[in-house]
Amino acid sequence: MAHTGTSHTEQAVRPPTVLVPIVAGLSFLWPCLGSSATMSFRHAMAGSASVVTGEWHAVVMSVLYLLAIAGCLAKRASVERLLKGGRRTLAVVLTGALGIIGHLLLVGSPGMGDSAPLVTALVLVGFAGSIAFIVGHIFAWGALLRRLSLSQAVFAVAVSSALSYAVQLGCNELSAGVLLGYLVICPLGSTVGWVAADGSQPAAEKTLVSRATSPGIAASLRALPWKLVGPSLVLIYFEQVFSSLLFKRYPLWPRDNLTVTLAVGAVLWLAVGLYLGRLFYRAARGAKPRRSLDTVLTGLFAILLVVYMGALLATLMFPQGDGLVVERFLVAAGSSFRVLLWLAVAVTVGRQRSDLVTGYLCYVFFVLALPVSRFMALVLDRIPVHVIAFLTSPTVIVAAAGVMLFLIATVFVVDSTRTNRTASDAQPLKAEPDPVEALAAEAGLSPRETDVLELVCHGFTAKRAGEKLGISESTVVSHMTHIYRKLGVSSKQELVALVEERKA
Questions:
Q1: Residue ranges, the chain, pLDDT below 70
Q2: Which of 28, 124, 238, 313 could form a disulfide with 189 if both were Cys (CB 3.0 to 4.6 A apart)?
């Protein structure tokens, strides 16, 4: 991340106007990370001659994501250099252009002809362009947010998420074609927003942290708030697998209905944005925050968990297609946990002064590689109907909810215990006051007289003390005279006895 010589929490609070291009630009990035893009592109490719359609869409995307992650990790230093100076802007513009080309190829695949090998190759190129855009812009936006205060960064992410959901909702209500068109231009919007926001920052603040001061990958992973990251990952994976099971059991459910998901996501993140906006407003006025960001993130996790579990248990009350709405609540909550993970990683990276690659690849690995779980859909195709019916039965749903809540509670209890123990261990033992320093302070000795007193009490002669301190023997004798007078003693023996008395 960008490094200016101070920690993220010490960054100056920026004027609210600086956040406008940041919020606008991020709102174009989020749709490309969510399920709406995956689902929309899959449906757009349904009539394509490419063999990479249906469930294989997610599998191929997952493999390419993992390859991109491995490549960035292997070339960590090179990726960092690409994001410095003028090359940083070039990298953002280039990856944005690749994203536009990639999305156009995915959307236009049905009209590319009937040659399966050619269409498949073009679709794979489209996947590669989309991934290059996502990975590149995650790093770039992470660097930019690093220059803000933590409260501003979190506020920008939350508000942009709400705006993203709202715009997608409007596009989806108009038509599927409008939503696809919006997804195609998202890389352009993200690029323009980033360039505008980057240009508003002082040039002195645009230097990335050096490799030498960056923690390693293992250190970045250990620093993550696992009490939030771990449970969030479990909930995201479960939501994806459970939704696939429901769709297998009730195939008439419309898989492309995004309205409820987008509406719930917009309301959730609008509420979060308003709450964080209040905190941001107080911080901008110089007010001391009443709650730490850790507390805010934990509270946000609790809110999302209530919505998630409520939607999961509500599926028991609605048979077949009637449960679509509540299931969409579950999908929305699962998607919202992705943004929560991004917030948690952003805060951690900011506090650590981590480089972009080791920090935000944590997010890329955790969230963008999550479509691997869609591979489960291929497995589910081979599961008998009666097994799927059992896995989506009330007994299993209640048991799954109970197990997840128990595990989450255990994680939080263990983390709290570990934190308290670490804090206790970090408390230094109350050191006994040094008798020489105590005497010197009481008698008003000068620093040099204190040095002489220390050496004499350790058995140094006037000559050796002078050699040690770089002064003459006569100067040491003069200091000793002043020390005797100030301490009320008349000899070296009395002086040593006074010090030993203090030690006892």
A1: 1-16, 34-36, 39, 53-55, 58, 83-86, 149-150, 201-217, 219-220, 250-258, 260, 276-277, 279-292, 318-327, 346, 349-378, 380-381, 418-433, 502-504
A2: 28
* Enclosing domain of residue 456: 435-503
* CATH number of the domain bearing residue 316: 1.20.1250
Q: CA 324 from chain center: how many Å?
A: 31
CB 42 within 8 A of CB 53: yes
In a domain, 3, yes or no: no
Cα–Cα distance, 480 to 8 (Å, whole number): 51
The reply to whether 292 falls in a domain is: yes
List, in order, residues 6 or more apart from 181 with CB less than 8 Å away.
Answer: 171
Contact 225, 344 (CB under 8 A): yes
Total structural domains in the chain? Answer: 2
- Whether 344 and 475 map to the same domain: the answer is no
In this structure, are 489 and 410 located in the same domain?
Answer: no
The pLDDT, as a whole number, for residue 85 is 61
Grouping H, G, I as helix, E, B as strand and the rest as coil, residue 382 is coil
Q: Are residues 129 and 111 in the same domain?
A: yes
Q: Amino acid letter at 307?
A: V
Asked whether residue 39 is domain-assigned, the answer is: yes
Residue 94: its pLDDT value, please? 92
Cα torsion 324, 329, 332, 333: sign? negative
The partner residues of 2 in beta bridges, in order of sequence, read 208
The answer to whether the CB of 48 falls within 8 A of the CB of 110 is yes
Q: At 475, is the secondary structure helix, strand, or coil?
A: helix
Torsions phi, psi of 208, nearest 5? -75, 155
In Å, what is the CA distance from 433 to each residue of 326, 378, 504?
65, 70, 12
pLDDT at residue 296, as a whole number: 76
Amino acid at 264: V
- Under 8 Å between Cβ of 324 and 257: yes
What's the whole-model pTM score?
Answer: 0.68
C-beta neighbour count of 111 within 10 angstroms: 10
Among the listed residues 57, 242, 272, the one whose alpha carbon sits nearest the alpha carbon of residue 156: 272
402/419 same-domain check = yes
pLDDT at res. 283:
60
Residues 367 and 482 in one domain: no
